[in-house]
Design goal:
single chain; 313 residues; alpha/beta; Nucleotidyltransferase, domain 5; five-stranded mixed sheet; Sugar kinase; ATPase_NBD
Length: 313
Amino acid sequence: MRHVIALDVGGTGMKAALVGADGTLLHEDRRATGRERGPDAVVAGILDFAADLRAHGIDRLGEPAAAAGVAVPGIVDETRGIAAYAANLGWRDVPLRTLLTERLDSPVALGHDVRTGGLAEGRVGAGRGADRFLFVALGTGIAGAIGVDGRVEAGAHGFAGEIGHIVVRPAGTPCPCGQHGCLERYASAAAVSEAWAAACKDPEADAADCAKAVTSGDPNAVRIWQGAVDALADGLVTALTLLDPRTLVIGGGLAEAGETLFTPLRDAVRRRVTFQKLPTIVPAALGDTAGCLGAGLLAWDLLKTTDGMEVTT
């Protein structure tokens, strides 16, 4: 059965699947990334995982994977197939596409993790049917994916969608990127966790705990949460002014708060728009499977461009 390898590499874990031409998940697996062993060991682990998936396809499906799609974090040169930099994995300028192509003896597509997840949300998830969408992931940081007619725009240098580094509070909190007042310093899950842990003097408290306290009416939680929502709305209005998306898809850990986030966020964005058209604001639908599903789409897209095959997804 013709299939592809889909592999989503995260800071702590890797999710993988063998995916059929109709999008069916024929096999799924997970492994630890093993970043504590260093960048070389992480790369070796990715190559070994991919090789094991190829072997499984031969053994169970009767043939090797026709292609592979791999999503990785950090700065990714998708055109050259290079994982340029990832702070949480410690690597620089890894020719990952070449290494995987040699190991698998098949074509490989390399993508940025958030853009790849956005691709899946746009085609088969919450943004399905929208000709223009913006996917925003609220996790440890904040990143986005700009969707246009079923594809995701990487930008001229691979930096498109870095909404987390829109400055929303000039002269505000320093950001590791070198700026001050970046959106992700106020509205990421990590930022909310940090603020709530300090407020309740519990170093183990996180954003999910803050959301629960908001629903119970805790004034400190409400203040912290509203500050994050206001900052997020400021950043999103800047983005929608530039991009004019039809649908705005919000995912990541902070989005798991559901309407505790979405009700005030929709209101905050609505209050800020003037001439702009208000997009539909919806939660992501695919959860932590988005990156893996998107990697499968990258692989099928690669085959479509190389051998003219029509793919239904």
